[in-house]
């Protein structure tokens, strides 16, 4: 038994010695591919993911072509106001009409809801004279005044814009100027179906900017050449009104009166008759 064990051990040792290399000759395994030397010009892939706040593109949502995407400016640009030095062709203040012939233009500024506008219209109708009325936003606040506006149009008078609230326009921003003008213009169009083309700035105040804005909105700015401050009570009463008009009369005169003036109302018939005697025609602007 002991001999048998010794023989088996001897055989195993012989097999191991002939089937393996010496331990001192064992080396690290050789890889199939040689490793490249490290390089310094590695360019990373430009891979990014959407921010969490960015919604993912929905599968059924149509993505616009590049040509359909509007160009976005670097910084939002605020609206630019009209420069005060900008004065386009045709944007000017008109103080006189046709100076080549004997014609005058009676103009009436209205702003108060209690003005006797129909009394003025009665005198003009009786004398078969056409005139020009400039009205404020108050004229759209009462049905009676709306009827007066319709009468002005039906009888052949011109109706112009005197702004919504009668402010000094140069003191306003461009947007406020447009709002003052558009309020009256839009209400007039809604009432009559016609567009206004004449603007009389309150107090006669204007600037290059107001002229430009009015021009862009389709208005001519109308002032006057004859004025006797009838918005206040005249010391000389109706006779003062009559005398002032006759002393400052000229071809193409634009005569300013106010619908709240009792003196002008009382003098109007006499003024018209004298103008006719002197050979003047009276026309609407």
TrEMBL record:
Extent of the signal sequence: 1-19
NodB homology domain mapped to chain residues: 102-283
Keyword Acetylation: no
SUPFAM superfamilies (UniProt xref): Glycoside hydrolase/deacetylase
Record Gene3D superfamilies: Glycoside hydrolase/deacetylase
GO biological process: carbohydrate metabolic process
Superkingdom of the source species: Bacteria
Protein keywords: Signal
GO molecular function: hydrolase activity, acting on carbon-nitrogen (but not peptide) bonds
GO cellular component, one term: membrane
PROSITE patterns (UniProt xref): NODB, PROKAR_LIPOPROTEIN
Protein's name according to its UniProt entry: Polysaccharide deacetylase family protein
Organism: Desulforamulus aquiferis
